[in-house]
């Protein structure tokens, strides 16, 4: 029986059925009656103050009511013929700061609980971290952080919508020991109450707001890359899964707006994922898509989002009217704030992106605030709104799968989430530029940094130390080109890459002892150079020639014997012979942090 519907039947807010487990810091759904209510007639309504979590289970041989103790062990009543628990009930741990039904309690963590046990005091930091990531429902557009319903699995799972994108995504929920790329798509679809008046009410939904969320391999940092909807780019051929299970290939289009990678000609989110891959060189693992309703519902569920304006705004087109300084907005006002193009900067989509990034950062901070984290009601409403708003790829189309994803994302400190906009310039093909094209200098630099998993913000000291250790492999004596011996395998995307590299090494660099070993056993994402300890001078010489980063160096444990060669395996990051693989360490582009409040100008 659905826990939410039971609560409604008894006029109890489902969120009030959540009980804080003091041992873990997580809210859990209490499905049995409190000890103080054990004498009540079964099936009779309980007063709201008793925090009863719904009616008894229906008959039919189901297991009696049960909860978990603080140590995780399961407690439950006897299994009767009717399936109801008729024996005495034990008290469930109450919420922090409340008195137990059977009598007063001492200070939290110091006094005995109602079962006579003494609770172990949990470190504040650990308890807070548990609260932040309770459950596992994730909503990322205009949210950017995971929230969850810990026990209402069926309810939340039924809220989710999914799309089968076939080979466009990653069938594994989380790629172990590798970077993670999630494409967040906000569509301009006008479905939903009150949304038909926004622009083209007949729109099928295009990729109006696009954020590629790149999570580093070690999960210490993330880059949120906004891609302008008016970017002129190439949309590749893409395969879409039809309702009958068959596949249909949608032909690609050159020199067209990015936003039509979704909706136009039957393109689904998988087509947008393929477009992002061709544009950035980054494989997109998963997508999350929402429409106008998400902004209204999520901002309301969190209790409003704080925004700051450098000047007062009164925009008749978006109906946004806010004073100078700080305001808290939700619902229609929140949607107007993220949609307005005439209130900030030069009234372009690029300035609107900046405002959206500020809104997202503020939403993240609000969701991690004590006001939200300690409120079961807010957590429930937020998780409910998030799952109703989300459409995701089939690989993450359930609460357990989103939970796995959320566990990876929870490792990122907010201060290490950096928002950037794809570097662009005005479209030179237009006399009066309306659209933009990729900046030919800065965009490749940014793509290279993301492909090389380089953080755009300061991260933990251990990450810096690890990088220093990798860079140390490149320091030292270097062998002469004539003494470098290497076998080259092609595990990348460029046909004939191994032969191209060998030709370049021999003719341009004098590495005559280089051999083309054709294709590698499998495709690989990163180029690597495997070498023995006594080949270190050769490895450093080759790394310098090719511009290999320290992370590409794979030092073995045993010395090479005789004429044994090093092994160079070209990966997907290989762009051609003579093109350095090392991305820049820094880039001079505007950035914003999810941890800092800014005023929209």
Describe the structure.
With 601 residues, the protein is an alpha/beta fold. It has three domains: 1-122, no CATH class; 137-292 and 376-454, Nucleotidyltransferase, domain 5; 469-570, Alpha-Beta Plaits (2-Layer Sandwich), CATH 3.30.70. Helices cover 24% and strands 21% of the residues. The chain contains 14 helices and 30 strands. The strands form ten sheets. An eight-stranded mixed beta sheet has the order 7-20-15-8-9-10-21-29, sandwiched between helices. Helix 3 (153-159) packs parallel to helix 9 (376-389). 42% of the residues are buried.
Give the SSE layout.
Blueprint: H1 3-9, E1 18-21, E2 26-29, E3 66-68, E4 74-76, H2 124-132, E5 137-139, E6 145-147, H3 153-159, E7 161-163, E8 180-187, E9 207-215, E10 222-226, E11 232-235, E12 238-241, E13 247-250, E14 253-257, H4 269-280, E15 286-290, H5 292-301, E16 305-309, E17 313-315, E18 320-322, E19 325-329, H6 331-339, H7 349-367, H8 370-373, H9 376-389, E20 391-393, H10 399-409, E21 417-421, E22 424-426, E23 436-438, H11 442-451, H12 461-472, E24 485-490, H13 497-508, E25 513-519, E26 528-531, H14 536-546, E27 553-555, E28 566-570, E29 592-593, E30 599-600
